[in-house]
Amino acid sequence: xxxxxxxxxxxxxxKVMIMVMMLFVSWRCVLGLENINPIFFDEGLxxxxxxxxxxxxxxxxxxxxxxxxxxxxxxxxxxxYQHGFFSSLIKLPGANTAGLVVAFYxxxxxxxxxxxxxxxxEFLGNVEGKPWRFQTNMYGNGSTNRGREERYRxxxxxxxxxxxxxxxxxxxKIIFWVDDVPIREIIRKEEMKGDYPQKPMSLYATxxxxxxxxxSGGKFGVDYxxxxxxxxxxxxxxxxxxxxxxxxxxxxxNTVGYNYINCSASDQDxxxxxxxxINSKQGAAMRRFRERYMYYSYCYDTVRYAVPPPECVVLxxxxxxxxxxxxxxxxxxxxxxxxxxxxxxxxxxxxVVSADQ
Length: 357
Known about the structure:
- The protein is α+β, with helices and mostly antiparallel strands.
- The protein has helices at 2-29, 41-44, 264-272, 280-293, 316-319, 333-346; strands spanning 45-49, 54-56, 62-67, 73-77, 81-91, 100-107, 118-124, 133-139, 150-153, 163-169, 173-178, 181-187, 202-209, 229-242, 294-301, 325-327.
C-alpha cells in the first residue's frame, strides 16, 4: 500500500513539473522571449530617486516603486543603449489613482539636454471606479513641440495582475507591445530626419504625482489618503547595443565618439528577432486594438498638424472615427468598448484582444 501511495505521489509530482515547464516555455515564447533573459536588478539597473520608496525583492528579480505624500520613486538602467528591446511585467496600483503617472520609457534627456530623444509608455491614473488609461509617445532630437502621442484604454484591469509591456527600437522601426499584441508601429521615413530617435538612451521606470494634467486635464489630483501607491516591475529585460563602455572614462555625460560605436551585430539581431516583426495574426490584433481602444491619435489631429507627420499611415476607416482634434467622435468606439465589456462579462474566457484570435 505504501509503495502504491509513493508511486502515485511521484507520478503527481512529475505531472505538476511537466505542467510548470510547459507554462514556462509558453511564457518564454511570447514575443520571442526565449532569446531574452530577464536580469537581476543589480545586473543592469540602479536607483534613480526616492530611495526609501524603491523596494527590491529578496531574489532581486522584481522591484516595487512607491508614491507617498513625500516623494515618488524610480530606477534607471546602468547603461545606455544604441537601439534595443526593453520589456517588463508591470502591475499598477488600484483604487483611486487620479493624478498618478507610472512611466516605463527610454530617454537621454540627462545627457542631451537640448536635443534629447525619448520613447514613452505612460500610464495615467483615474478616479475610483474608472479604468487606467495610457499613452505612447516619441521624441527625436528635442522635438518636444512635435509630440507624437497616442492615447488608449486597455482590455483588462492592469491593477489586478501582471502584464508585459515592451518597446522595440531599432534603426528602421519602433514597436510598442502589450503582452503579445503590437499596439503601435512607427516605420522610419527619410522625411522624419532627426525626429526619429537616433542617439543612445537609458531605460527608466518611475511613479510620480502629475496632478496638474494626468486625469481630466488636472481636474482630479492625487488623493494621498489612498497612499502609498505601489507599482510593481518584474522580469525586466534589456537587449541592445550597450554603448556606455565606449564613452571615455565610462562617463555617460561625455558623448564624444558615440557615433563611431559599431552596433551592427546587435542591430541585426534587433531587426530579425520575433518581436521586430508583426505577423498576420498580430497585425489583425493590432487593428482590433486600435479600432476599439485608441481614443486619440496625433495623425488625425488636423488642428495641430495640417499635414500629418511623414510616418503617419492614415487609414480612411480609422480617420472617419475621429474629429479634427484627433479625438473620437461622440459614439465612436466608446460604444464598441461598452459592448465589448458586456461580452467579456458574459464570457470571461475569451480575450477581447489577442494575437491568438
